[in-house]
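Example record for the data management plan.
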Amino acid sequence: MANERLRDALERARVSPAELALLTECDVKTVSRWLGGRVPHPRTRFKIAKRLKEDEDYLWPGAGRAATDATDSTGMVQFYPTRGSVPPYLWDRLLDGATAEIGILVYVGMFLTEKPDLLDRLRRKASAGTRVRLLLGDRDSDVVKQRSIDEGIGQETISAKIDHANAFFRPLRAVQNVEVRSHSTVLYNSIYRFDNEMLVNPHVYGKTAPMAPAMHLRKTGSYGLFDTYAGSFEAVWDASTQQEGRA
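Corresponding structural encoding:
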């Protein structure tokens, strides 16, 4: 199976197969084999990952297994058993690295507000030309109230949390390149997009979002999970409602 992650990393770093061959003291045919799915030796993997500024485990997940199992093109970078186990530095890296697109699809997303400088960071991103789209739940919708019941926290709890989230994000409504909308869709997943990477939090019946799994996804050269969830975000966006009022 072709190593789409390695191919994409070479393109992002603007490193040609010939340059990679020189770096690793191999011939171009060997590089072609790596792009075709063959796994380099450990010392070579380290050298390549360092040059491309990528995680070795991302370029060759499961490198200790047979080469045919080494990678796939789904775009899965890492799976986390709970959203709470996603390391804080990853959220910061993804947010700081975004230059074109930040998209957040949640009912509440209040855990994000624990970052004291979040609003300022989003303002700076928007001022630099980054498109910022926030989708919050419609606090009066039946689906929001049902989700609150399903999570066992009372019918109005999530609605109250949405009120807090709206109050927190309200100052951003007056910022150019930022748009905040409400949606009343059944939220199967919370989605946090940062350019060509995203964190997806699939929801589990009877569990709150922090206790449900999370996936770190990256866009690849072929259609993968990133594209699936990016399409889902756009479908909700198209069905959403512009929030009334400006700060």
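Summary line stored alongside the record: The two ends are 52 Å apart (CA to CA).
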